[in-house]
Design brief:
Distance between the termini: 15 Å
Number of domains: 1
CATH class: Alpha Beta
CATH superfamily: Metal-dependent hydrolases
Helix content: 25-40%
Structural class: alpha/beta
Largest sheet: 8 strands, parallel
CATH architecture: Alpha-Beta Barrel
CATH topology: TIM Barrel
Length: 342
């Protein structure tokens, strides 16, 4: 059995930098025509100038693959309305990313007070530059499994109403609360969904012991939430589209006393999504989710070329090179049912 799709795009991707970038970009380039690249490097990608320089490094690492990185700026207290207006004029910058300070990997430069950046958000709304959001509160008093739901109720709702013309993408949604919010929200609000949140619930974190390979942020949730995500992704609703949130970490920092959050899925992104859609009996709706809805939301042309997968078992390697170190991919050593042919 073969499945041919309009070549998909990845609307949430971490590529890191330097030799680590060179190690991982080939996996995304082999499956996706474009990817929205996250700006949480150290130091953060805060300006158009920095974003274009990073884009140049990605293109050099991707070689002649045809892969196109779509750049984002990191929203910090230093971000100015003038910078986002400049970003809106540049054809290579497509969004600004909001990280609540301390919410996830390399988020220390993020936002502690939304009110402080209201002038920036007003400018973004005026020029139509999308705001991508890591939607979790960081209050230590809120249970980690409730942080997305609290963000949706306490922060995202008022934010989307105050800035009614601002395009918003709630990234890597993990809860029924987030799905319900997006479905009921005003026009211009959408969400990305990862393959791992479609395939796993929080039991995977503790199967046979603590499993760092399944630790990501937002953390995996209950089975009822996973089912809500699958229903949303396979529903044909254009407000939900593909974003892998593939996030590579070296084994030395992933398997540690305080291991990093993030799952590396770029090596098998499309086979994993196919698995999720096939299990739901919805393969006929995968192309729209993976190839159409994100491009439509971001206002870029749908891709014209195609990509084919075959139902053919293959074993995921135990590790991949990651600069001078190695990383462990999701499903390391396991056999997946679908293979990308190109």
């Amino acid at each position: 059995m073969q499945l041919t799709l309009v070549r998909p795009d990845d609307w949430h991707l971490h590529l890191r930098d330097g030799s680590r970038l060179e190690s991982v970009v080939k996996h995304s380039a082999a499956q996706f025509r474009r990817a929205l690249v996250m700006p949480n490097l150290v130091p953060a990608v805060e300006t158009v100038e920095q974003a274009l320089a990073y884009r140049g490094r990605i293109l050099a690492a991707a070689g002649d693959s045809g892969f196109e990185p779509l750049m984002t700026l990191y929203l910090t207290p230093r971000t100015s309305p003038a910078e986002v207006r400049l970003a809106a004029l540049d054809p290579h910058v497509h969004a600004v990313k909001l990280y609540p300070a301390g919410a996830t990997t390399n988020s220390d430069a993020g936002i502690q007070s939304l009110e402080a950046v209201f002038p920036v958000l007003e400018a973004m709304a005026e020029v139509g530059l999308p705001l991508c959001i890591h939607g979790e509160v960081t209050d230590a008093g809120v249970d980690i499994f409730d942080r997305e739901a609290r963000f949706v109720a306490d922060v995202l709702g008022p934010l989307s109403e105050r800035f009614a013309e601002l395009p918003i993408v709630l990234e890597h949604v993990t809860t029924k609360d987030a799905v319900d919010f997006v479905r009921a929200a005003r026009a211009g609000v959408a969400a990305t969904i990862t393959a791992h949140h479609l395939l796993y619930n929080r039991n995977a974190l503790f199967r046979g012991g603590i499993r760092p390979d399944y630790y990501c942020l937002p953390v995996l949730k209950r089975e009822s939430h996973r089912k809500a995500l699958v229903e949303a992704a396979t529903s044909g609703d254009p407000r939900f589209f593909l974003g892998t949130d593939s996030a590579p970490h070296a084994r030395s920092t992933k398997y540690a006393a305080c291991g990093c959050a993030g799952l590396y899925t770029a090596h098998a992104a499309l086979p994993l999504y196919v698995q999720a859609f096939e299990s739901a009996g919805a393969l006929q709706r995968l192309e729209a989710f993976a190839s159409h809805f994100g491009a439509d939301f971001y206002g870029v042309p749908r891709n014209s070329e195609t990509l084919t997968l075959r139902r053919e078992p293959w074993q995921v390697p135990a590790e991949y090179a990651f600069g001078d170190e190695s990383l462990t991919p999701l499903c390391a050593g396991e056999t997946l049912a679908w293979r990308v042919l190109g």
